[in-house]
Amino acid sequence: MTISKAAYMERAITDKLMIHFGKTPDQASESEMVKTCALVIRDQMAISEVETRKKTLKNHKKQVHYLSLEFLMGRSLMKNAFNLGVLPQLKEALEHLGFNASDIFEAEPDAALGNGGLGRLAACYLEAMTTLEIPATGYSICYELGIFKQKIIDGYQVELPDNWREVGDAWLLPKPEEAEEVLFGGQVQQYWENGKARVVLEGATKVTAVPCDMIIAGYKTKHTNVLRLWDAKTAMPVDMSFYSRGEYVKAVEEQAMAESISKVLYPEDKHSEGKSLRLKQQYFFVSATIQSVVRKHLATYGTLDNFHEKNAIQINDTHPTLVIPELMRIFMDVHGMSWDKAWSITTKSVAYTNHTVMWEALERWSQTLIERRVPRIYQIICEIARRWQEKCEKFYNNDETKVRDLAILWDGEVRMANLCVAAGMAVNGVSGLHSEILKDDVFKYFYQMNPEKFQNVTNGIDHRRWLAEINPGLDALIQECTGSDKYLSHASELQKFDKFADDKSVQEKLAAIKLENKKSFAEYLYKEQGVVIDPNSLFDVQAKRLHEYKRQLLNVMHIIYLYQKLHDDPNLVIQPQTFLFGAKAAPGYDVAKRIIRLINSLAKAIENDPVCRDRLKVVFMENYRVSLAEHLMPAAELSEQISTAGKEASGTGNMKFMMNGALTIGTLDGANVEMHDLLGDENMFLFGLHADEVVSMKREGYNPQRIYSQDDRIRRILDQMRNGFGDGERFEGLYNRLLMGVGGSPADDFMLLADFDSYAEAHRRMAETYHDKALWNKISIHNIARSGLFAADRAIAQYADNIWHAEHKKI
Ligand code: 26W
User: Number of helices (H) and strands (E), helices first, in the chain?
Assistant: First the structure.
């Protein structure tokens, strides 16, 4: 049976290769093979997509529209084949054609249309929405360049463009017949027509938005969904008179300007820059999306009166906030609705997810910029803001501080988060703790006005990708112990694995799987980067964007501490450890880049040090990305989740490590809190201040200099950091940041010194536990077995039940 299916697959591949590239398998390159396989799989999905669309229309089901400026999709070939249930035959066909299947999978470029957690979450959610058979569409921009590729040269981060589309295009279906026009600039004109006020925009610049659809396969379902990526094209026809007037260059210039909108993903994380092009990107994808949604709705129902009953629009952080005024504009200016009716429908359709409490990341746009780029949208925002302010003044009896806090327009700026909370039908945080902080702090006055709006949906990850697909050894063990593959559809089944925690033979099998995974990762790292690591050392991993609040620097401080300890006592017996870092720094974030440089100095120093080199190893993994994470997670043993409490909204890497059996060393922050609820103190290495203690310690006047002067270890670590490691690099800037505060930010803003002692103590407990192999494996089993809560399926079911009110397959 499988043989014939594989033969069928092989035939499809050879035919496609011939038609598309005019080649036979022996002539095809790996890239051509990736593209060919993608086209074969895409054809299969395209058929189900047509069927799904028909069914959704016929059944008049409520649809979900997930708007996000980022979708960090990663690779799709193996994932789609896995979900469609054709992975075995695809592998067999490739091998039979003379290719190494894993080389082919490895040759696919990541579709890296995102920065980090927020973008990867959107990708995991699309998969889960599809598996749960929710009619859903993701919307974003078809960036030509995804997040930059990171090279490390002489210890420094260097950014290179990521041109993913050469091969990645194979997944995209352009739909020029569904293009939309988006207008920028111009003047708003109002006039009366048949007793009704009409608003039109004159002299605006048109940009055409062409959809490129990426089909998403679900697991064990024929249901498919689509990620619709908008490509910006100039709307100008090739106007000959333009050219004859000698304005050739101008014509080409305008084209380049329009098309620059979808050129590049902004590589910022946690810092809103207020750049005009970024605003254009936001309006471009929002306007195209809403026009397309409204057009399809009208084609089905012939009325907009039931728009909110048939559509739920989820906005992923504030980046798509302009959907709110854009819906108002289309309802009123294009379809003649009254303000009140348009507002009532809009506010029943849109929901907002917040992903950060860092003030730098809360988007604020200059009013003049918005007015210039999208004048009609600006008018509508002003009117929303005026009405909102009236409401707030009434509710809070003109209390000025509260009204100011709640304002949408303030001090020449538009506050996007406030607009979202004022207009959204629901607002949610992404972990229990984070959602509480939103209610008690960030949006406290909003919460007092509308407590029923505020919800929590703890993040989740696609466990089919992040466990079954990337860790087949563990997948097999779980299936063996739980008796079936049921956990793939019902992640809560993982619980059944818990009772094997004390089973010696299961512990040993798990240890053997981990060791295999560590060996494969060591090989991978050697191939990619030429670095040798020892699979028998403990793999201690911190992989995430580089940011001060995530405290990679605390990890570094502790490694320096171990390094100095070994120097004090060269005969000290310690567990050999490999510290793996993976992190991109935003190109303009100098402190983050300095920390990367420091990690590389430390790595070099240890490598050249005969006392330490057999016991400690530090590796900075270049270009951390989804596909690297897929190799890394199965091999990790210790997961570093050490953010300053109250700062990490949720974290999702923490969940991926846990699911693959790593133990966590972490603070009570984000979803770590919920992990701790499931695991207890005995199955996790908890340390550090709690979120409320961070706040109160800051209020009472935190003094890192005192810690520095009283704790010898800390003084030595920081002094070493300042002086560097003898390679000509000194890190006085970082030292000053911890002790003096620089450029307006307080000394040690993220409280590394306050948490150091407790962190070192947790590491000590960890090393002791690692020594007891049986205990370590037992804890690892508990971690895997209790990670089912963090499946994206659970999170999506909550969104569907509590926010979207959309039907879904039960899990
Ligand atoms: C405007 C620049 C910018 C770009 C991205 C500001 C903020 C962001 C994101 C909100 C940053 C982000 O990725 N947040 C992460 O979202 C994850 C998914 O919910 C959480 O797990 C992480 O804790 C959170 O940092």
Answer: 34, 25
AA identity, residue 432: G
Minimal CA–CA distance to 381: which of 446, 322, 338, 421?
Answer: 322
Distance 374 CA to ligand 1 centre (A): 26
| Secondary structure (3-state) at 326 | helix
pLDDT score, position 238 = 57
Phi/psi of residue 696, nearest 5 degrees: -70, -35
E strand segments, 247-406 = 311-316, 350-353, 364-366
How far is it, in rounded angstroms, from Cα 158 to Cα 163? 16
Look up residue 275 and give its DSSP letter: -
β-strand partners of 196: 193
Q: Ligand 1, residues 354, 356, 544: which to mutate, most atoms within 8 A of Cβ?
A: 356
651 touches ligand 1 (CB under 6 Å): yes
> Is pTM, for the whole model, over 0.90?
yes
Q: Is 70 in the pocket of ligand 1 (CB under 6 A)?
A: no
Quick check: 125 and 461 in contact, CB under 8 A? Answer: no
**Who's near 203: CB < 8 A, 6+ residues apart?**
185, 186, 187
Q: Which residue's CA is the closest to the ligand 1 atom numbered 22? A: 651
Sorting pLDDT into bands at 50, 70 and 90, what band is 2?
Answer: very low
* Ligand 1 lined by 118 (C-beta under 6 Å): yes
Residue 413's SS3 state is strand
Q: Tens digit of pLDDT for each residue in 627-636?
A: 999 999 999 9
The answer to whether the CB of 429 falls within 8 A of the CB of 649 is yes
Closest alpha carbon to 651 in 663, 635, 639, 661: 639
Closest CA to 6 of 80, 77, 107, 81: 81
Ligand 1: residue of 270, 272, 548 to mutate (most ligand atoms within 8 A of CB) is: 270
pLDDT at 1 over 60: no
Q: Is the CB of 650 under 6 A from ligand 1?
A: yes
457: which 2 tokens? 């949906």
- What separation in angstroms does the CA of 443 have from each of 118, 420, 436? 20, 11, 10
